[in-house]
Amino acid sequence: MSIYLNSDSKVIVQGITGGEGTKHTALMLKAGTNIVGGVNARKAGTTVSHVDAEGKDVELPVFGSVSEAMQETGANVSVVFVPPAFAKDAAMEAIDAGIELLVVITEGIPVQDTAEFFAHSQGTTTRIIGPNCPGIITPGEALAGITPATIAGKGPIGLVSKSGTLTYQMMYELRDFGFTTAIGIGGDPIIGTTHIDALEAFEADPDTKAIVMIGEIGGDAEERAAEFIKANVTKPVVGYVAGFTAPEGKTMGHAGAIVSGSSGTAAAKKEALEAAGVKVGRTPSETAALMREILQSL
């Protein structure tokens, strides 16, 4: 089992002909993803050449719109590799077409643009992951995003993280156990899928035996997740909060990572999570060791 993405998912790439789209389409195919085409209105009717996971040559059709791509291929997932200025329109188009899962990789999208396409998705069937995220991987089945697919294989751990690089590190640290699904939700002030959404899905997934949750300073998402865990999650959860040494009042890396007073600090988040029964490490390696102990005792 997995959450949100599996080997049956049919994936299209918005921006498939651009530099990032080309590079990551190749890597997603290599990871076994069932990519069925791409979207670029200016290059509709053409194809792009790639190689699939078995080393066979594939010609992927380029469509003029997400709607057309879905009608022709049955696609239910779209990955957006579109420059920030055009990302809102790309997301709106996918939402209007009724795509089930929309993974927005693009970094640097203006917050107002994200707010608009997030609001546009409310009441629809579209789940958004991102923006400014590494996307989602179900090892051995499918990758929608930029997570290196060779870090870890399949296993019993569910991973949800605000940080891309910490997603990769945690997967590497626990590679001998493996993952059902690893999802990078992004660190912008406004994101689609939240820690709570992922925790709920992992709780419902029978193959996920334990969950790693990675947060960072700023906002109150981790505190809210702690409340949710306390009330709804029966599986063991370990956590890590990036930013224990961050100076107060200074934006660190992600646009959402800003601390004011004690609100949003790593210490406050650690306290809230521990009060909910989550074991929290002070470093990624310590967090991985906590998960290792849990898995060995199951």
Describe the 3D structure.
With 298 residues, the protein is of the alpha/beta class. It folds into two domains: 119 residues, Rossmann fold, CATH 3.40.50; 147 residues, Succinyl-CoA synthetase domains (Rossmann fold). Helices cover 34% and strands 23% of the residues. The chain contains nine helices and 14 strands. The protein has a seven-stranded mixed beta sheet, with helices on both faces. Strand 12, helix 7 and strand 13 form a beta-alpha-beta unit. Helix 5 packs across helix 9 and helix 7 packs parallel to helix 8. The radius of gyration is 19 Å and the shape is globular. The chain starts with 10 loop residues before the first strand and ends with a helix. Belongs to the succinate/malate CoA ligase alpha subunit family. One of its GO terms (cellular component) is succinate-CoA ligase complex (ADP-forming). It catalyses: GTP + succinate + CoA = succinyl-CoA + GDP + phosphate; succinate + ATP + CoA = succinyl-CoA + ADP + phosphate. InterPro entries: Cit_synth/succinyl-CoA_lig_AS, Citrt_syn/SCS-alpha_CS, CoA-bd, CoA_lig_alpha, NAD(P)-bd_dom_sf, SUCC_ACL_C, Succinyl-CoA_synth-like. Its EC number is 6.2.1.5.
Give a brief rundown of this model:
The protein is an alpha/beta fold and 298 residues long. Helices cover 34% and strands 23% of the residues. The model has no long low-confidence stretch (mean pLDDT 94).
Main sheet? Answer: 7 strands, mixed
- Radius of gyration from CA coordinates: 19 Å
What do we call the CATH homologous superfamily of the largest domain? Succinyl-CoA synthetase domains
Helix fraction, binned, reads: 25-40%
Strand content of the residues, in percent? 15-25%
Report how far the terminal alpha carbons are from each other: 19 Å
> What is the β-strand count?
14
- H/E series, N to C? EHEEEHEHEHEEEEHEHEHEHEH
Shape: globular
CATH architecture of the largest domain: 3-Layer(aba) Sandwich
Uncertain runs with pLDDT below 50, 5 residues or more?
none
> How many structural domains in the coordinates?
2
Sheet with most strands: strand arrangement: 3-4-2-1-5-6-7
According to CATH, the fold-level topology of the largest domain is Rossmann fold
CATH class designation of the largest domain: Alpha Beta
* SS class: alpha/beta
In DSSP terms (H or I, runs of 4 or more residues), the helix count works out at 9
**What's the pLDDT, averaged over the residues?**
94
